[in-house]
């Protein structure tokens, strides 16, 4: 029986191709989703652990269950506490680097550039940056400068520069080191120090001097990186225990993978891979659409093979053999198409990674899950979708199959079907409402545990699936009714439209089956389009909130001419230059004082021009201060008793506040203006002239536009450093590079979703073609009769085209409405934790979707119409 099945498959391979394409497309998307998740996690891991260099382990603070006193003790650790020499001598330890860094200004002649200096290592590959020329510092008074910094200072390997600490150390003010020899140049390909535009690698004595201590062992650090030799796939227990025995109290040894996993979890707010889950939902829906295509394909095959099946029954084939034959055919088809789908998805992701499409620097990262899961899923879906046709094959008796049969099913739809469908819709709506309520109850999902958030997400998906299944189940009731109204208008245009209108009313089951294919496809397209648009706008808003100001320059002697030079830089769209002072915000973050920077501005419009975050109706006057909602360093919400903010502005030698300022606090959700402060507030500039505040420095906030200008972040950094090179202490920092990396990742995800839109249209096209093919087979006698009484081939073609168009309009509009609601639901549940969710209705995209659906339906009617008109009436009547 198996050999007969394979021969039948070869004979009808053209009919199997559409179902195979649907399976291949669905599994290709699932495979590419896995691979995209792998690539994004790999990219995130490299970025989050870029400071490791070649290290595979790190010693870090084990902050769990530590009291404030214990935390202070841990964060007061010095390099000497870690016994680096002894650790380096342990068998299996290939490299050690203590992470010490501080802000400095590098000078050569009249030019000064700010930067971040980090500690060196004995092994070059232990550094978080690459040495592109020369060598890493090994002896005293040696540095390796970033390539761009060296160009701005016009120095090279062998030249000397001067270093000045950006912060006062001890009672001697800012430390300075002259005649520092440049021994190398660095690059930062993984963005470990993108916030500072790169990193300076310095010898141990320079790090000690810049921190105001006499010896490198006295410098402060809370992180030590280790390169531990692998014994197979893991590090030997002897090496691990030897290192742990030398660690100071409250510190632990963690692998690079452990640290990156924890960092990724903290970024997403829970233990769920949001992006992969979000995309996988659409992959499952794509396979659901493919299942309908597969089911229709096997229905067509069984209808065409009814005489073959009858002959097999007459020569002794049992019902079970016929049933098994259809399922075996499904397994073979599912396996072959799924393997091709995995290959297609892998090639697609590989091409995107090696080309410039993946702007986030993603690498192709294959895993067994990307192959096994799609193949198994494809086979299971194919088998499940073919079971109905397999049962139909067993129902064919020799006598019934060898005589003319009217295939049209005129059975009335049962009341049970309607009740089940309505219950599905009702339960699905209730589950969707429950998931929305849970998201709101858990503060947008931020307060939910990993398992709890996963459950909320699954409930939302299950609710949407039940609503959709209920709509499909009850489509036999509501879809023909809607089409009847539209068809009544269309029938006024001629006989072809009249026949199409009559066919729609004649067989509601066939119309529901045909319309459901396109309904699913269009719903999927609209869901993706709406979800993608909402995700894009929501995540852009979240990025604007988290990375509020692109670039920040601070310094005592930034002149107006320097400000003008910065404003004239290509890529700089807006600037804000204002006086500022460091203060302490009292008891707004729990009970701990918070470091803050107050910036004096003329009005709120100045802030809005450079701030990416939405400040809403916030205002600034002489009695108020604009403050962020959250502490940028701890993430805790800033809460002000009685709505007032208390600032300490001067202190005596004992550290007690001798001068303070109290203002009414207006809050808005903006963050990351400066990494040095827990909060940056904006006050009326009159406070700096009436004696309330003394300007200790000036800040220059810059808003950049890399898209329209076409310049890179590095170009803007370099141009700003050049514009401020005459300043002796100006520092240039900013999260723009981090924000752009995240934005590029979102763009890459959106590109994948756009690809899925094309996938959904293809699947819908294949599905409608198959269901119309079945419709033609069902109406063989009807078509022959119409031809016999004088209907031309053109009129018969047009009747099928009009029927397809009517189906596409009703199914398409219904799909757009359902898809929009599903897209809103998915975006709300998934992205609430990242910020305020945007609910767009994509008029343009949905209009295109409807147009594409109509064209797809018309194209899908071409081949069935050709089949209907190619058979002579007499032959068709005889066959029927």
UniProtKB/TrEMBL annotation:
The protein's name in its UniProt record: FtsX-like permease family protein
Compartments, record wording: Cell membrane
PANTHER family (UniProt xref): ABC TRANSPORTER PERMEASE YTRF (PTHR30572:SF4), MEMBRANE COMPONENT OF TRANSPORTER-RELATED (PTHR30572)
UniProt-listed Pfam families: FtsX, MacB_PCD
Keywords: ATP-binding, Cell membrane, Membrane, Nucleotide-binding, Transmembrane, Transmembrane helix
Location of the ABC3 transporter permease C-terminal domain: 281-394, 756-873
Membrane-spanning ranges: 16-37, 274-301, 322-346, 366-385, 418-437, 457-479, 511-533, 749-777, 800-831, 843-863
InterPro entries: ABC3_permease_C, MacB_PCD, Macrolide_Exporter_MacB
Species name: Bifidobacterium pseudocatenulatum
Gene field: macB_1
GO cellular component: plasma membrane
Chain ranges of the MacB-like periplasmic core domain: 21-197
Family: Belongs to the ABC-4 integral membrane protein family.
Membrane topology: Multi-pass membrane protein
Keyword Transmembrane: yes
GO terms of molecular function: ATP binding; transmembrane transporter activity
